[in-house]
Amino acid sequence: MTTTEPRYLRPGRLVRALHFDPIVAFLVRRGVNVWGSRVLSVRGRKSGEMRSTPVNLMTFEGEQYLVAPRGHTQWVRNLRAAGEGELRLGKRVQRFTAVELADEVKPALLRAYLKRWAFEVGAFFEGVNAKSSEEDLLRAAPGHPIFRLSIVD
């Protein structure tokens, strides 16, 4: 990246027109596990109100992670400020605390994330995929925040 602005890819017209996020959120709230999706709820950093969005919960080497394929989104900014949130699948709610990871530890996590969800989010990684070199994944790392979760319930 040559700009100092954090990377963020807004949803395209097709995604906005088809409203995929509300559909996934609807299913997940009813207990349907859509490829590991959960509804993330985090307190808004400005409003103080709970904000919710569907996310892909990734388990890697026994730990749970949230990866932001679109970059520095509102949920990322809110999670940074709050440091905690909730994940919902049906009636099951898991409270967690989150730690944002440094870029140098992200390549293996990005590779695992892309192996699992490339069909859904691959376009947001601008040519980087699960078979990309370690160096390419490291170059992409600053544009994709990753949080390690610790479940508190």
Description:
About 30% of the residues lie in helices and about 30% in strands. The chain has about 150 residues and is α+β, with helices and mostly antiparallel strands. The chain has a single domain (about 15-150), classed as Pnp Oxidase, Chain A (Roll). Helix 4 (about 105-120) crosses helix 5. The protein starts with 12 loop residues before the first helix and ends with a strand. Mean pLDDT is about 85; it is low at about 15-20.
What keywords describe this structure?
153 residues; alpha+beta; Pnp Oxidase, Chain A; six-stranded antiparallel barrel; 29% strand
Summarize the structure.
The protein is of the alpha+beta class.
Fold blueprint:
Elements: H1 13-18, H2 20-29, E1 37-43, E2 50-60, E3 63-67, H3 74-82, E4 84-89, E5 92-100, H4 107-121, H5 134-140, E6 146-151
Antiparallel strand pairs: 1-2, 1-4, 2-3, 3-6, 4-5, 5-6
Helix pairs in contact: 4-5
